[in-house]
Predict the structure.
Amino acid sequence: MRILVTGARGQLGTELVALLDPHDVVAVDLAELDITDRAMVLGACHEVGPDLVINCAAMTAVDECESQVDLAFAINAMAVRNLAEGCRGVGAHLTTISTDYVFDGTKATPYDEWDEPCPRSVYGRSKLAGEREAGAGVTIVRTAWLCGEHGPNMVKTILRMLGEHDDLSFVDDQRGHPTFVSDLAPVLRRLAIERRPGVFHVTNQGAVSWFEFAREVAVAAGADPGRVHPCSTADLQPPRPAPRPANSVLDNMAMRLAGLPATRDFRAPLAELVARLV
């Protein structure tokens, strides 16, 4: 099977490409393919002739999206339109990644795949636009709080802060499911290769606040979790430009109903990642 992977040098793309062996994988990043350029995307699809396209490319700098609206929509929405058109032209199946930010975070219970999106940030609006541009019959994987060995993420940030500061403060009024690339990538691979259509929420299990997550990272690193203290989003200085969903917990209902195995509690891959990083 020939598989074209975009965003191949990012946090998710790096591990996914390694996992796709022994398939014939064409791994591209911005240097090789500007997915915002329609002509380049259509040309690449016809030249490569993929059976599958897995789009891991995105503008994920949530606060920067607020001030660079056109760029956010170019990468997160129009690029998906280009990829979808390219896939239709060669009969390839498209899989693309989305986010918990498509929801406003006001629901009292976890969000399932059939809840109505209502994004509050430019990032969330651009990713929802990308979902819609993907069209019918594609695979959309929504995930949240992604962490892995490659690229920047909160686990690395917390470990660095534990080494630099005596005390740390993290918000306790934003909750979600931490998700680890080591567990997400195999599910993404299966959904793409099996051409499963529709929206799937794929996260690790175990809902926590950022404060609780930071304490778990401290425990995994052998540090005193008592060094981590709670604060509210309103206390953050300076205030963050992009609003964050208070509830980012995603119910993996579509996976469950499809008979796919549940992912692990996040503490297991967290311990594995911290062991590799430290």
About this structure: DSSP finds ten helices and 13 strands in the chain.
